[in-house]
């Protein structure tokens, strides 16, 4: 019998990995998700990183530094099969918040996930949300909360929108994350 997945069942979990293998785990897990037909249960794999600016020989050098070395975030629906696929991915040593003996881990709180993803310039929404230029939206977060507008540009990769709204009888353009707006 096929299981139906609702977005309410999607949660973020933290994986513990060997330090230095975070990107390899991400690649391995994405490949396993695809090859084992788990796309409906395992959605996004994120290695939390931040830009670090460094001065060397008078030149500025920008490097990506792991925010949490040895950890990877995964957005998934926790089932026995998805747990097994993730847990047995090469380089994964376990789930954070699991008490061993096959117990399922506790998911991250939504505000914890939002803080990490926003610090990386990412949206908490998955890219299965589609926005079109010209589409009317309501702004649900930020300085323009409660205002209506129209989408003028969509950046699917960064999950950002440009929305034109009216304030004081003037058009104002705001750049917003996908999770800051709802479709009308």
UniProtKB/TrEMBL annotation:
It holds the Pfam family NusG. CDD domains: KOW_NusG (cd06091), NGN_Bact_1 (cd09891). Residues 130-157 form the KOW domain. This is Transcription termination/antitermination protein NusG. Keywords: Transcription, Transcription antitermination, Transcription regulation, Transcription termination. Participates in transcription elongation, termination and antitermination. The gene is nusG. One of its GO terms (biological process) is DNA-templated transcription elongation. One of its GO terms (cellular component) is cytosol. Residues 9-120 form the NusG-like N-terminal domain. Belongs to the NusG family. InterPro entries: KOW, NGN, NGN-like_dom, NGN_dom_sf, NusG-like, Rib_uL2_dom2, Transcrpt_antiterm_NusG, Translation_prot_SH3-like_sf.
């Amino acid at each position: 019998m096929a299981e139906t997945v609702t977005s309410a069942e999607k949660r973020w979990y933290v994986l513990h990995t060997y330090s230095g293998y975070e990107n390899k785990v991400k690649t391995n897990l994405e490949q396993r998700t695809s090859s084992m037909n788990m796309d409906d249960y395992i959605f996004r794999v994120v290695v939390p990183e931040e830009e670090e600016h460094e001065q060397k020989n008078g030149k500025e050098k920008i490097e990506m530094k792991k925010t949490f070395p040895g950890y990877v975030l995964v957005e998934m629906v926790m089932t026995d099969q998805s747990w097994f696929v993730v847990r047995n991915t090469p380089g994964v040593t376990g789930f954070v918040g699991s008490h061993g003996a096959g117990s399922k881990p506790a998911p991250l709180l939504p505000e914890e996930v939002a803080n990490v993803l926003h610090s990386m310039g990412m949206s908490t929404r998955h890219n299965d949300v589609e926005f079109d230029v010209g589409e009317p939206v309501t702004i649900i977060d930020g300085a323009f909360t409660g205002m209506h507008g129209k989408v003028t540009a969509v950046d699917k990769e960064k999950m950002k929108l440009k929305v034109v709204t009216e304030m004081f009888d003037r058009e104002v353009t705001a750049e917003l994350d996908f999770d800051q707006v709802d479709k009308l």
